[in-house]
Amino acid sequence: MSNSPRTGLAVAGLSLGTALNPLNSSMIAVALVVLRADFGLDVATVTWVITSFYLTSAAGQPLMGRLADRFGPRRLFMLGMALVAVTCALAPFAPNFAVLCVARAFMALGTATAYPSAVVMVGALAKQAHVKSTRPLGRIQMANTSAAAVGPVVGGLLVGFVGWQALFLVNVPLSLAAILLVRRFAPADADRERGRVSELLRDSDIPGILAFLGSMVLVMMALLNVLPAYRWWLLGGGALMAVLFVWRELRFAPPFVDLRLLGRNRPLLLVYLGFAVFSGVYYFAFFGLPQLLQEAGGYGPGVVGLLMLPLAAMSVVVTPFAVRAIDRFGVKRVLIAGVVLLLVASGAMWLLTASLAVPLVFALTALLGVPYGVVSIASSQGMYVSTRPEERGVAAGIFQTCRYLGAITATVLIGIFYGTGVNQANWGLMVFVMLGLGAVVFLVSLLWRERRG
Prior knowledge:
The protein is an all-alpha fold. The chain is built from 20 helices and no strands. The longest helix has 30 residues, at about 265-295. The radius of gyration is 21 Å and the shape is globular. The two termini are about 35 Å apart.
């Protein structure tokens, strides 16, 4: 078999594994009502099935990236997918809701290995197929960006025909297929760190990792308001853990995250900032629009899921064109063009204050899918070229965490705007916020420069 088909099958396996995290983060939303009935839960308690996944994914992605950098992306990817397969095979038999939430956390940890591992492997895959890194990275990013959007539709079908258990069981064959493809066709890991377990643990900066995880979990619990009576205590504890994390990383060698190097890497910091804010704009529409269509438009969940499909479809369609444009015009020009389209699409969303007619909604979700695909792949490529090969795993993990930070921030703001009612007037106010955030992304894109050397 030639290198090109081998690379295509390897990328297919990595893309499949990468899709599992965003897919499972979104399709569970349609099962909340069923889970409440089966386990006898209230509204606040059932959301922990989402929160446990979000917290573990956001905090775990950089850690998984670090492990991929140190011990090899191929073996970490397969280990993560094996964890997903075992967890999802057992989860339907959970005796209570608490165990189900723990299963969701383990599933999140397993799926969190995929994207950082895939990014670390991109260089070897591109070399194997004699193509630029944008090609395999574009396909992986396509899976990463489209899976979340199709999640509610897939989840609705699975829950409707089988039950909530199917949301776990569907991951078993998918994760096993990803393992087989990557094991058979992906290039073997290069020599990574070896030595006694005690030495590896000593050099792994365990306190730094724990401080990072602790600060992320506490701050996100505060933002998600999972414990309303302790919200400010959680925020304060998260800030304290963040200070301890910075103090540790500046004193330890080699650190979990090289803050000095990161501070000098202005292009990477700008990529993170731009992508986090961009994700906030996108999730304003992704989370806010379905609520508007259901409560103000009177559409059923099935119809709303179909109306959101063009967003995913267009992001998939435009990604190959964006990849070719990056090869021809460079990352920055494509990124700026995508952000301009984002501003246009966000402004057009104001039309929904006048009408929620199906053709208009269909057209606007399709329009928003274009900049989503373009900016996502341009930001991903910007992150890739802004980091050294030995740092791309943890860099990719932090990149994914920026997506979750944007999503969580958008969720909090939507709750504020919809607090007085889910109506077209409040949607109009949200559109102005989307435009403001889009302007920030535009400014950051203008400031970004490709890292040299």
